[in-house]
């Protein structure tokens, strides 16, 4: 009996793409494709047990050892700084963390800047490095509404296609950091399931590199 690897996948489009890569890299799980409301799926032959979790919760499952491995956005890793090992940049879920606001926005350094965000630590670090005084307005979604309604001057948020900004007459003002999905590991699992984790990591890396090559 193989030592199963418990893998937390982010629910949604990114998660489905990530699962596709795991499967093509040699870790398939036919059961997961049956349309059910189940959350846990395993394939002992391939040595994997997958489960779907909210994308922002993946790092918590991995940090606390409920999952050996997971796939989490760099944005989440920078915001929550979980004690996990970052093993691989999957190159999927590519977007950027940026400051955005009204197209004609001009910063007035004599006033405290009001920043709405789901990522207070990233915003604080970004403006802290420039010694810019800010007032963080911590929201949980629809961040773009804040400058439109005058709740904030700017936002710190993810930009993927830029559609949400464009459709709300906002514009990117400053890039903070590129973001993509990372393979992360629990630190204890990494010791005790080292051979299995290492093999999966190498297989996935190889598959991703090959796919990249084919795209050229
Ligand atoms: C994210 C992000 C932006 C949007 C960016 O929101 O917070 O609002 O996607 O994507 P785009 O550049 O392709 O338009 P999400 O869809 O997670 O919803 P939320 O408003 O609940 O945060």
What this model shows, in words?
With 216 residues, the protein is α/β, with parallel strands linked by helices. Helix content is 33%, strand content 30%. It contains 8 helices and 11 strands. The chain has a 6-stranded mixed β-sheet. Strands 8-7-9-6-10 form a 5-stranded mixed β-sheet. A hairpin with a 4-residue loop joins strand 2 and strand 3. It is elongated. The model has no long low-confidence stretch (mean pLDDT 96). The structure holds 1-O-pyrophosphono-5-O-phosphono-alpha-D-ribofuranose. The site of 1-O-pyrophosphono-5-O-phosphono-alpha-D-ribofuranose (PRP) has 12 residues, from strand 9 and helix 6.
List keywords for this structure.
11 strands, alpha/beta, six-stranded mixed sheet, binds 1-O-pyrophosphono-5-O-phosphono-alpha-D-ribofuranose, 8 helices
| Contiguous uncertain segments of 5+ residues | none
Strand order of the largest sheet: 2-3-1-4-11-5
Hetero groups in this structure are: 1-O-pyrophosphono-5-O-phosphono-alpha-D-ribofuranose
**Structural class label:** alpha/beta
Gist of the model:
By secondary structure, the protein is α/β, with parallel strands linked by helices. Helix content is 33%, strand content 30%.
